[in-house]
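> forwarded from #structure-qc
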């Protein structure tokens, strides 16, 4: 089984959430939250700020910790076929944007980032991370944990 620790930014302002459009090596587009892998020796708090800057072109400030999500993705459901089962542990932070300008990720997999009205999210092909992050931000569970989001239809791993 492979493993990844990741940090994700949940930026909600004026009824809109900041989403990033990820394009897979196979050319499929999926909307996700800005964020990604925590590098070896890196603090997740610093990783989420770095990831927002890399993927969106914006400066960010962490406003709080929302929660943690752990999921195991079966090998047959991985985006890139042929890999083993994969565990992703995601740390979700409430993040505010303090400057910069939205742009695609240079030499990366994020083709664009946009402020999306919350009611429009349900109609997007998206990562389950989006639903988890929004739920954490809206409900603020004391445990920092929400139920897993079923994958299928418009929702992907």
């Amino acid at each position: 089984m492979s493993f990844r620790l990741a940090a994700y930014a949940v930026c909600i302002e004026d009824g809109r959430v900041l989403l990033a459009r990820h394009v897979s090596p196979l050319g499929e587009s999926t909307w996700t939250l800005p964020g990604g892998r925590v590098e070896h020796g890196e603090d997740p708090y610093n990783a989420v700020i770095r990831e927002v800057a890399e993927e969106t072109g914006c400066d960010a400030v962490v406003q709080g910790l929302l929660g943690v999500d752990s999921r195991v993705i079966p090998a047959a459901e991985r985006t890139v076929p042929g890999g083993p089962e994969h565990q992703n542990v995601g740390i979700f932070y409430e993040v505010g944007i303090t400057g910069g300008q939205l742009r695609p990720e240079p030499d990366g997999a994020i083709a664009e980032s946009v402020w999306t009205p919350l009611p429009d999210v349900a109609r997007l092909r998206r990562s389950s991370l989006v639903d988890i992050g929004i739920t954490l931000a809206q409900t603020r569970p004391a445990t920092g944990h929400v139920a897993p989001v079923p994958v299928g239809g418009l929702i992907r791993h």
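QC bot note: The CA atoms of residues 43 and 157 lie 24 Å apart. The helical segments are 44-56, 128-139.
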